[in-house]
Amino acid sequence: MKKTNLIRLICIIFTLCLFFSFTSYALTGSTFSSSGNHLIYVNNPESFGLNAGQLVYLYGTNLGNSYKDVEFYHHLYNAWSNSGACRVGVAMMNKGPNPAIITYKGSCTATLDGYNFAVIEDTSQVLKNFQNAEYQTIILNPGEKKIVWSDDFRFTPGFSEFVYGRAQFKSNQKFGVWLRVFAAGQSKTAEDIFKEPLPLKGIGHGFCGELGYTEKNVTLDGDSSNITNLCEWPSLLNTYEYDGVINSKPGTSKYHAGNYGVVYNITINHAANKKIIINPKWSQDRPYATLVYSVNNGPWIVGEKITTGMFWIEDLGYEETANFKFMLPGGNCGSYYVSFE
């Protein structure tokens, strides 16, 4: 396969021409199917206080012998003065009668926050690193509790901290292993984490819960002049794009709006010598955008951060059928318009 060139950034005047050409095209809905693993997405509450003496239990569920992915996205604050050592991660407990072998991989970032748009570059890299990470294993004996995967950080006085991570876990036992997503001071143990009776309550519109999918599949036609809206929110035209929610924490959204971290697996018919164009729905609240993508099952690539009036365009190769995958990293907005030329 010819090596994919770095995504070309198209200047604003060309984008405007494309935009006006969009107006003669039809924005149409698509029908999706689900596949992959379960995804535990933890984003509510999105912001909360934390210091070295605290422990925050965010979400918990069981772990069986099929993979479950975990992704979290949070802004943490501590009165702007404390420089305490903290961590975020996943702890596990084996309630079963047999030793459990846990297989896992992950990637995480913890960085100065300030609620700026620089974090969307960090989130893209985390998703790419997660896809390329190597699996590790640990053993949980019956009754044992361990922090299996975590990222340590220290607050910088005067700044909040942004944390974002993606990981994947499975046990060799079908029953008996439980996991909890947490944020805490580094002195807190797995024993402490599993003493917490209830997770932190949800507030507002962010999602916190478990999905029955990590992939959404759709077939598009490269000869069509229609525009497809992927990660569409609010959900208006697409069918089954957000179906598959297993559970959501009380007080949080019932749907994972935007499908952050979900792989959109796009099969494109009549793709020979075509290009795919991805144009974010720009607004005053969305001056930047990123994505992580793969063309024809090639390596995962972090697309360059683009600004208002720009878009991404990528060759699909010479075969009649092509494949394009992408993931929406945390910190972006939904609604990516997809078309072909």
Quick rundown:
Helix content is 9%, strand content 43%. It has 341 residues and is mostly beta strands. Residues 1-26 form the signal peptide.
Your description of this structure?
The protein is mostly beta strands. It folds into two domains: 12-36 and 212-340, no CATH class; 47-205, no CATH class. It contains three helices and 25 strands. It has helices at 12-22, 119-132, 190-193; strands spanning 27-28, 33-35, 38-42, 47-49, 55-63, 68-77, 85-94, 100-112, 136-140, 145-154, 161-171, 177-185, 208-211, 215-221, 227-230, 245-248, 263-269, 275-280, 288-289, 292-295, 301-302, 306-307, 312-315, 321-327, 336-340. The chain is globular. The model is unreliable at 1-23 (pLDDT under 50). It comes from Ruminiclostridium papyrosolvens C7. Keywords: Signal.
**Which structural category fits the helices and strands?**
mainly beta
Instruction: State the helix count.
Output: 3
Could you estimate the helical fraction of the residues in percent?
under 10%
Stretches with pLDDT under 50, minimum 5 residues = 1-23
Q: How many distinct domains?
A: 2
**Oligomerization state:** single chain
**Rg from Cα:** 21 Å
Characteristic key phrases:
341 residues, mainly beta, 2 domains, eight-stranded mixed beta sheet, six-stranded mixed beta sheet, 3 helices, 9% helix
